[in-house]
Amino acid sequence: MATTASRSQQIIEQAQRYIPGGVSSANRLVEPNLVFTRAQGAYLFDAEGRRYIDYHAAFGPPLLGHCHPEVQQRAAEAMASIDVVGVGSSELEAQLAQKICEHMPSAEKVLFCNSGSEATYAALRLARAVTGRQKIIKFQGCYHGWHDAVLMNVISPADKVGQPDPLSAGMLPQAIENTLVLPFNDLAAVEQVMQEQGSEIAAIILELIPHNIGTVLPHQEFVQGLRDLTSQHHAVLIFDEVVTGFRHGLGGYQKALGVTPDLTTMAKAIANGFPLAALVGRADLLDHCRPGGDVFFAGTFNAHPASVAASLATIEILERPDSYPHLFDLGTRMRDGLTAMVQRHGLRATVAGFGSVFLLYFMEPPIESYEDLLRNDAETFVTYRRALIKRGIYELPVNLKRNHISLAHTAADIDESLAAADAVLTSFS
Ligand code: PMP
């Protein structure tokens, strides 16, 4: 008897026929291969109508929740009165740039683009231009986008740690050679390289919290040390706050840490799901990118009105006094609940996170760098998440990926998720 393919199956087959792998981004094809047809607030709905509490959150944008009505309305209003003009200054863009400068410690001026990769690309080009140097330093475990200068050494296999680990064929060998990769939180390693090659280093770029490997908290002295070393050697310090910007505060995580870089990159949550990124920082540096300046910066869709309006609405909502307390309280509720569960079940597991970010590693502390995370039991990590998905809790079933809570999540959502986690962990212990 012929069986009819499910709606999901039909969509997957059509996508795979016309799109390589059926997806448009490297980390989207994971098992189980689900098709989501609706996203609302804290929830995703698959093509069969099943509901999932969403903690993947598209790697972080929907900080206020999916399809937030105020954000959507403001974006639609903007687009109804003006779409893409492509010449001159725009009123909303100017307002947004001012707002960001008021909130972000390092922001004296702002340039808008569309994705985090574009922002880090521009930041590194600018750093090379103003220093006249070629080399950059990044850290093992940090991800800064898909371009050649930084697409290396994120989740490296053990035998690739400590050597160049490019993530794609076709990258320029010169780009790989000019990127030095060091261990996170290891100031002595950076000091040594700066001592030997400081006059050749254009920039140090880092995720302030390397969320691309879950959550590794930076030592304040490490970040302050990077600030001191880059100043001393006239290199540019770049904080990649693509994940942390707005999520951990309107001033980014740099405000909490009390260290100010020369340049900051932001994306993801800043427009709650609309494509928008920003390169912000010292005015004397960003002014190189003005039209006619020596550093070229451009893009047809830069500062797109829908995204800019969405970002202004997002900021207004985040400025409300209850917003961050709600995000941080739910994060604490989740982490505390998981910690109690790990103890009760006597598991070799560690709860990590900050603010609205959380995850459960299947390993014991300490977790200070990527090298420590090689001890994580990747198989159990993925098995645990696949079991949660069966229970309607969506955490991306890929090793070391973080989870995000949004303003739309409620204490009841967290408790429902904790109950599901308890059921899964019971079967593990
Ligand atoms: N920097 C960081 C810290 C990121 O997490 C990402 C995306 N995961 C990027 C840069 C690149 O951003 P995009 O995917 O928007 O190009």
Shape: globular
- Broad structural category: alpha/beta
CATH topology name of the largest domain, in short, is Aspartate Aminotransferase, domain 2
Low-confidence stretches: none
- For the record, give the distance between the C-alpha atoms at the N and C termini, rounded to a whole number: 42 Å
Bound chemical compounds:
4'-deoxy-4'-aminopyridoxal-5'-phosphate
Question: So, CATH architecture of the largest domain?
Answer: 3-Layer(aba) Sandwich
Overall average residue pLDDT: 97
Summary keywords:
single chain; 429 residues; alpha/beta; Aspartate Aminotransferase, domain 1; Aspartate Aminotransferase, domain 2; 2 domains; 7-stranded mixed sheet; 4-stranded mixed sheet; 39% helix; binds 4'-deoxy-4'-aminopyridoxal-5'-phosphate
Detailed description of the structure:
The protein has 429 residues and is an alpha/beta fold. It folds into 2 domains: 7-60 and 322-428, Alpha-Beta Complex (Aspartate Aminotransferase, domain 1), CATH 3.90.1150.10; 69-319, Type I PLP-dependent aspartate aminotransferase-like (Major domain) (Aspartate Aminotransferase, domain 2, 3-Layer(aba) Sandwich). Helix content is 39%, strand content 14%. The protein has 14 helices and 14 strands. The strands form 3 sheets. The protein has a 7-stranded mixed β-sheet with strand order 4-10-9-8-7-5-6, sandwiched between helices. Strand 11 (350-354) and strand 12 form a beta hairpin. It is globular. The chain starts with 6 loop residues before the first helix and ends with a helix. Bound molecules: 4'-deoxy-4'-aminopyridoxal-5'-phosphate (PMP). 4'-deoxy-4'-aminopyridoxal-5'-phosphate (PMP) is lined by residues 59, 115-117, 120, 143-145, 207, 212, 240, 242-243, 267.
